[in-house]
Amino acid sequence: MIDLYLSPSCTSCRKARAWLQSHKVPFVEHNILTQPMTTNDLRHILTKTENGTEDIISTRSKVFQKLAVDVDNLTINELLDLVTEFPNLLRRPIITDSKHLQIGFNEDEIRAFLPREYRRAEMLSTID
User: Fold this and answer.
1) N or C: fewer beta carbons within 10 Å in the chain?
2) Is residue 10 annotated as part of the catalytic site, yes or no?
């Protein structure tokens, strides 16, 4: 099952939701503002990142700039606690399943969440 972590006001989040819905891909939606991610959720996501916290922290967010914190000097537990307290620190949307992770919306990359049969049929239809 696909988990879509988002905030409703985020344009990229709305695009990701619309894309998944239009391709009839089942997903569970998690509003990170009303249902903050647990530290276990965050740890699970971090295990799938290529660059660790760098991939999930939005250094351009207003919250990040207001906090003026150096994430490189935080322990992982301190960082997870901070993100749990301030979910707007996260880049969004976060889309994940058992094999894939995507941070942000990218129409080419989100295709990885399509079932293999769907992708195969789509490829065959472009060859004809």
Assistant:
1) C
2) yes
